[in-house]
Amino acid sequence: MHFTKMHGLGNDYLYVFGDVPNNIEELSIKLSERHTGAGSDGMIYITPSDKADFGMRIFNADGSEAKMCGNGIRCVGKYVYDKGYTDKKKLSIETQSGIKYLDLAVAGGKVIAVSVDMGQAEVSNDMSLCVDNGVVICTPVSVGNPHAVIFCENAEAIPLEKLGSRIEKHEKFPGGVNVEFVSKIGENQLRMRVWERGSGITMACGTGACASVAAAVSKGLCDYDTPVSVILDGGVLEIEISRDLGVIMRGPAEFVYEGDTIC
What we know:
It is a single chain. Helices cover about 15% and strands about 45% of the residues. By secondary structure, the protein is an alpha+beta fold.
C-alpha cells in the first residue's frame, strides 16, 4: 500500500487514494503508532464520490472513524491538485458531515493554502461538567463533529492530558467529544490547545479552531465577519464566522514524505 504523509499545522495523517480496506481499524492503529508505525494522528482515505469531486474518510489513531477534519480536508485539496488528479482550484469534497467546498490558492503550480467553507456551526448553551471533584464550564459546539470549548485565563497552564482525557469521555458526551481550551490574547486573537477525540493531544485541530471562534463570537469575545487568528501548537489558522454562524477556515497544508507498507 502506498501512502503519503501530510500535515496541516502539525496535525498529521497518512493519506491514501483509493477504497477503504476492510481492516481499516487495525491498519490505522498499526500505522499511526509513533514508535513502531509511520507515526500520525490517523489515516485519511481519498475516495471516489458520486456527489462531489472527491470523497474523504477519516480514521483516528485509535481506529475510530471521524466525521470531519479541518486540517485533513485542506491536505486533501493539496493532494489531489499537486498530484494531478484535478486541475480545478474550486473543489467539492464529500465527508461524513456533508459536502464541503474548497478554494485552493496556487503558486508555481502548487497549492500553498486552502480556504474551506465549513458550513454552519451550532453553538449550544453552556454546560457544567463535574470533573475530578471540580466543575468545568464548557460551550458545546458542532462543526459536523462535536466539541467542548472551554474558555480559561491561560490555555498554556491547563493540564491538557489529564483534563482532556476526562472530558472526552464524560458521561454528558456519550459518543465522546473533542476538547478545546481557549484564551483570548488580543483583539480577534485566540490561543487554543486541543485534546482530539480518538487521537489525544494534537498540534492543531481545524474543526476545533472553527468551534472555538464560533463560541467566542457568540459570547462577544471576538467579532463576526472578521478574520480571527487562532494560535495552535503547530501554527496559526484564520477563521471567519458570519452572523448566521457560517464558517470559513483558511490555512496551509504540507507534504512530509511518501511511503509504502505491506498491509
